[in-house]
Amino acid sequence: MIKGMDAAIFDLDGVIVNTAKYHYLAWKRLAKQLGFDFTEADNEKLKGVSRTRSLEILLEIGGIEADESARHAMSTQKNTWYVQYIRDIQPADLLPGVVDYIRYIKQKSVKTAIASASKNTELILNCLQIAPLFDIVVDGTKVSNAKPDPEAFVRAAQGLGIQTESCVVFEDSESGIEAANRAGMGCVGVGKPGNLLNADIVIQNFQQLLVINLIHVTLHGR
Ligand code: BG6
Ligand code: MG
């Protein structure tokens, strides 16, 4: 339940920027190399989860067994392709309204964080030129337990010095929403409602949220 928002914790992939399509392309390419098809519906299961766990799920779907060193090679190959795809992302690739929304809440003294499973977070934030917008970044290099474990969100709240119940998470994945719920935080789902059933509210994009906030300010003051 959303009670108030002293801190806003943003997932990165699929919330700030649509890198999800590039993760999908790279996993699909790996699956093709391994001899099976990997669909967009399959890809929903990979959103939000770590690279290692994503590979496990992919191999389960393809019915493929691989030892540790083969898995390491596959995961490295996938990441090489992924980094090639995202190398050219730029501020124009930011999802609609998200930067305006972050600037808007910062003016209202809300703290901001990124909590992402991605080990490419720093690269992506730099390409998008938005690193200074966040008070803290908790990424895949800093957490041991990937979503749906709440560790990334709890670490972000601790780093900001804000109680978990005063944090609101913005997430596009089922595993991220479960993590937010387990952390005892409010959760805004970003995307299609059908995939985000356990979020407190679902928005299609941040432009929509800005409009809702401006209506609220007009009717009720700050
Ligand atoms: C999450 C994505 O943010 O990061 C997942 O939703 C991805 O799809 C995970 O597997 C790990 O990302 P990376 O960049 O470290 O492979
Ligand atoms: Mg995501």
According to CATH, the homologous superfamily of the largest domain is HAD superfamily/HAD-like
Low-pLDDT sequence parts: none
List the bound ligands.
Answer: 6-O-phosphono-beta-D-glucopyranose, magnesium ion
Tell me the strand order in the biggest sheet. Answer: 3-2-1-4-5-6
Quaternary structure: single chain
Shape category: globular
Structure class: alpha/beta
Number-wise, the strands total: 6
Tally of helical runs: 9
Overall pLDDT confidence:
93
N-to-C terminal Cα separation, in Å? Answer: 21 Å
Rg, nearest Å: 18 Å
Number of domains: 2
Helix fraction? 40-55%
Please give the CATH class of the largest domain: Alpha Beta
| Share of residues in strands | 5-15%
Produce a short descriptive summary:
With 222 residues, this protein is of the alpha/beta class. The protein has helices spanning 20-34, 40-44, 51-62, 68-86, 98-107, 121-128, 151-160, 174-183, 206-220; strands at 7-10, 111-115, 136-138, 167-171, 186-190, 201-203. It contains nine helices and six strands.
Describe this structure in words.
The longest helix has 19 residues, at 68-86. This protein has a six-stranded parallel beta sheet, sandwiched between helices. It has helices at 20-34, 40-44, 51-62, 68-86, 98-107, 121-128, 151-160, 174-183, 206-220, and strands spanning 7-10, 111-115, 136-138, 167-171, 186-190, 201-203. The protein is α/β, with parallel strands linked by helices and 222 residues long. The mean pLDDT is 93. Helix 1 (20-34) crosses helix 4 and helix 5 (98-107) runs parallel beside helix 9 (206-220). It contains nine helices and six strands. Helices cover 47% and strands 11% of the residues. The protein has two domains: 7-17 and 93-218, HAD superfamily/HAD-like (Rossmann fold); 20-86, Orthogonal Bundle (DNA polymerase, domain 1), CATH 1.10.150. Helix 8 links the parallel strand 4 and strand 5. Residues 11, 13-15, 47-48, 172-173, 176 line the site of magnesium ion.
